[in-house]
Each structure stands twice: as C-alpha cells, then as structure tokens.
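Known limitations

Files may contain more than one protein. Parsers should not assume a single record per file. Below, a two-record file is shown to illustrate correct handling: read the sequence, read the token line, then continue until end of file.
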Amino acid sequence: MRAVIAFMWLLHWLPLPLLGRFGEAVGSLLFMALKSRRHIALTNLRLCMPELSEAERVALARRHFQAYSRSVWERAILWWAPESRLRRLIKVEPAMPMHEFEAGPVIVLCPHFVCLDVAGAACAMAATMSSMYVAQSNKAFDDVLRRGRERFRPVRIFSRQEGIKPILRALRERMPYFMLPDMDFGDKDAPFVPFFGVPAATLTATARIAASTGAKVIPVVATYLPNYRGWQVKFYPAWEDYPGEDMIEATRRMNAFIEERVREAPAEYFWTHKRFKTRPAGEPSPYAK
C-alpha cells in the first residue's frame, strides 16, 4: 500500500486531463476484471433503471467504473496539490452558503456520487466541519485519507460507534455536519423507503437529527466538469418545512431528491455498493447469482 500511496503522490503533479484519462483507462480494465462488482452495478441498474436496455445498462456501468476509478486517482490532487490549484479546479455554484453555515446548525447532505470527496474538500477550505468516518483497514491508507481530509481546517470526525450524541453537540456549537445519507447499514433505524421504486433500508438519521436540533438541510452534489476541466460542486437551497412530523415521509423526500440528482449524472452515482442488500423479511437478495 505504501508503494501505491507514493505512486499517487507522484500523480498529483500531472495535469488533470492526463490524470483523468489515466483513471478512466484503469476503470475500463477494472470493469472487465472485477466481475463481482460489475454484477452488483448491473443488478442495481436493472432494479433502478428498467427502462434501459441491457446494452445501455452495460455501457452505463462501464462509464461508472471509469468515473469511479478516475475519482480515486484524482484524490491525489485533493490530498497533495496546493490549495490554489484546487480553487482553480473546483467550481462552486451558486456559492458556498457561508451565511447559512454561520447562522445556525446545518446538515450538509452529500449523496454518494463518486466525487463526494471534492465536495468535502470544497467545504473544508471554507469552514470547520464535522463528519462521520469509517476507519480503513489499512493503517497507511487510513492515515493518508485522514490527513487529506483534515489538511485545510480542523475536521471533527466521529465514528459510527460513538452514535449520534457527538453529532448533536457539534451542531449545537454551530459546526456544520457533512453527512453521507444513502448507504445500506442494515435495518436498525432504517425503514424500507422506496429508492427508484425499490424498497431500500434507509437511515432516518437525517430527518431525526434535523428535528432534534432545528438544523437546516442543505444538499450538495459534486460532479465532473466536461473536458477534464475540474469539478462542479453544486449547493441546493435549504429544504423548506423539513422534516415535519413524519420521519419516514421526510426520508422518502430525501430519497426522491437523490433520485433526481442521479438521473442528471447517472454514471457518477455509486452503483457498486449493495444498496438493496438488506431486504424485507422473506425477500431474497437481488445480488444472489
């Protein structure tokens, strides 16, 4: 792993168009080699986009592998390039909502698009944030990942084992919470809420945290700019009247928002995650071969 990290450090000197093309080439190879991950991606696409032909889904899955691989190698720029270079490459629109960050508790809701680390870097360059973190199994990579995410401003990182209390404290201190809401962590506190019409175990944490702290929810999505020109980080208006009284309905609203963003950049959503791994009682896994 140390050799890979050293190689990534060297890559951060490359122009982004060259690095991006390198990442896509590796992704094309991985699409052919990683049969199990390809199966997961195609299963997700069959469930979520049945209107596409199988050939269209295969082409979309290949583009996803290219985009995902590219995002991994481009982290070299996020971790080691000068901040001035990142500011040239990251286009924030309409603008970083600093007045919202400073006015009161804010949940920055970042769905799992492959460029989510770019959104995190954009926020970290502007404000002190908190976030939840899953430790990596390889310590060398874990250290590099943490340093890369903390190099602009101090970031208060919590583990899932700590639960929700430190997040609530940070929000009450008016520290924005950078939240990744859309993965399958099992059925604890995760009712089955439709995602592309398919019941998906979805954490109600976004709605519950917003309800208990009065936090505004401001979504952000990071995607690629055309022609390897960098990345776009788009902030959406704070959700009005959220979450309301019904936590499940609020979670349904969140999933619907994510669906809309996925349709805008379908190759860049994280299709290789088993989003429908947890099933209602008696329902078989869609990933079984």
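...continuing to the second record:
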Amino acid sequence: MSTPNQDLRVSYVQTDLVWEDPIANCALLEEHLQNLQGQTDVIVLPEMFSTGFSMSSVGAEVMGGPTVQWMKLQANRLQVLVIGSLKIKDGGKFYNRLLAVHPSGKIDSYNKRHLFRMGDEHSFYSAGDAACLISYKSWSIAPFICYDLRFPVWSRNVNLCYDLAIYVANWPASRGLAWSNLLRARAIENLAYVIGVNRIGVDGNQLAYAGASTILSYTGEDMLPLTAIESIETKTLSSQDLKEFRAKFPAHLDADSFSLLL
C-alpha cells in the first residue's frame, strides 16, 4: 500500500496544439513552462502534446528523438517531473506513449492500453500490455491516456498501490460530460487524487476540444474551477489529508479480488 509522506505540488497545462508540428508545440509550451520554475513538482501536458491526436507517422520519434530530449531538458532545468504522451516509433511499431521524465533524466513510460477505435487509433498504433507506476517524492503515480478513462478495471487501485492517477487526453467537447463524470468516478472509487489534462482548440480533423482539465480530490471534488481557455493551474496535494481519509473510510479493504486477462 502506498503512503506518501510529503505534500506534492502539481500543475497542468491546458492549451491549443499546432497540428503535427512538434517544433512549434515545444516552443509554445516552453514559454508556458517558464512561469512554473520553483512553483511546482510535477507538470502534466496533454495527450500527444507535440502533434495533436493524429493517425499518421508525421511527428513520430524514436526514444532519443528531439521532443524526448526537450522533455529531459525541461525536467532538469525546472527540477520537476514532466509528463505527457507523444507518438513513438519502437521496433517497427507506433505507440501512443506517455513519458514521465524525472529531473535526473530517468524516464518511466506507459503505452496506451485502450486504443480509440472510433477514431481508428487501433489501426495505426499498437496497444500497450502493461500498467505503470511512477515513484516520485514519496508519491506513487499511475499514468493513463484518454480512452483508458472509460475502463475502470484498468484503473483499479489494487491495494492502494497509487496515490494519484493522471489522465492525459485529447477528449472532444461533444463528450465533455463523460470526461468530467468519469474522472470523478475514478477518484471516488480508487480513494486517490486524480488529474485530468485535456487540450482546447480545433485539431486537423476539425474536432473541437473544450478543455475542462481538472484536479480532483479523493472524494471526487474539483479542487480548481473548470475552464475552456488556455490556462496553467497549480495545486498542492496533501499527503496527510489523503492518509486520514483512507484510514477513516477504508473501502479498499472490501474490494473484490481479480486477475486481468490481457
């Protein structure tokens, strides 16, 4: 069971993305990140932050590519954990891969498990087959990507193995109610903080995005107001409050055991 022993400052960047242009997106994001130096411990960027949610090889990189190096530079310069997903080519396959880049240069990675078939994601990208837990400043963090949010078994906080779940997304405005309700459910059922980071604007497929990025408490309460504009928000997560709530309401002790068949 995970038990953090210090508070954690977390920030998300809700922004528009330039379609399939990693150089432009990294340049714009770097301007945003300047103001977070010394103000936070974790920075979360949207899904496919370097290209937008596109089904092509344009902007795809290997693990030593320029956007990965950019993430390492920002993590080291700002002394933060930088999290976001991008297109990665690995072993002849393409993945929607989330990277969690530590200040030291260490990288934890997670390949999106649930590929969005309604957007034909499963035809271009390969699905991941393993969950990921990130250890940072005594916190255990479980990363997920967009469509994963609809599958509660995959997000299940077995034996309270994580304290914070992070969902990076390109979640269209037309399904905004599902986004906010499912994030809330994941927080409540897993007795954990939840961060959902979505983009804004219109992508190259003319899909509109309304943001509604949020940081939720373990009771499902929004800790910040939801917006549909470009914004950077920071909140401190209390380790003591989480510990006390879990002790007072130990619903995890009554959870059903199960095994995943992948």
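Parsers that stop after the first record will miss the second one. For reference, the second record is described as follows. DSSP finds five helices and 13 strands in the chain.
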